[in-house]
């Protein structure tokens, strides 16, 4: 992804701008400089973003604004505010350069709220290497949900202390709400619709995801740890969410996030996917009508046979310490049509067929709610423990669980089994 240097400071223009629309006295929220703009001021706004000083706020009045891109870098205590998501709209559909609609880099104390961002070529808002980030009442949408959309709608990465609240994301060709390589994050009271993934927590530690509604995506919620990144994730809790009706085709782009390791692997009909992540607790969620697999727990080996060679302090391909309990789960009578055209989806279809072929007593039941690939740390230690990685399940539903025994797939010995006993919480 290209990076663009800050423009030279436009001293004369800024001086006039500040005289026209800022308060020299620190306001009640602690901002020393307050700027206010309306539609038609796009050039002034772009200049103001580039030349912001510490402790500044920008208010964008009601209306639609047309931008190429906006950038803020290396400042402290910044607020960007609109009149409301249905009133202040930043339209990036004519974007000709830059990887994002809004790019925020190295800002300590950044908040944005009360507006809609739409139709950038790349990510709608990327917040990089920043601290104390607050994103509220922000809508980030692409008008068309397909591979021409940018990857991430709301995208804090390599940040510390992030809050995403009361936001809405639509149309991302990767994840609507994506928190990557971040320490301490909360995602709450948000909605995500018509993305490949509604929300993804990737290589992020100490995250809480609750009171959200992720629906109508390919997959509702992903918790991934991937190799070759700056930190390992873990200690993620997801609770009181509604993950439902995520059955749409996967339209991830080829390339960076549509590659072997990317969200392109998410099968249509996935409620929750936990990939190579550890210290995860998933509880008190409603996981409804995700008609391939309600919950999948898989190792890096499932999608990359060379995953063991990529192990280091930042990456372990084996998911460990996974607690799944007290979730409400339902599934429809059949796979979503899009699953039959997807590489991982075809594996899930084949798994259901294999279970029913080897056990007629199932009477052609649907795939169990929880799919576990069964690839454990025994692969690395040459051990034989039944549950060496502390997978803990406490759920009451029938047809609850399948251990895929994925390393045997494609052989005559392959027999997935539905015995959850070794994985019940002790």
From TrEMBL:
Transmembrane segments: none annotated. Residues 1-20 form the signal peptide. Residues 127-300 form the Right handed beta helix domain. The keyword rRNA-binding does not apply. Keywords: Repeat, Signal. SMART domains: PbH1. It comes from the Bacteria. Pfam families: Beta_helix (PF13229). The keyword Coiled coil does not apply. This is Right handed beta helix domain-containing protein. It comes from Chitinophaga varians.
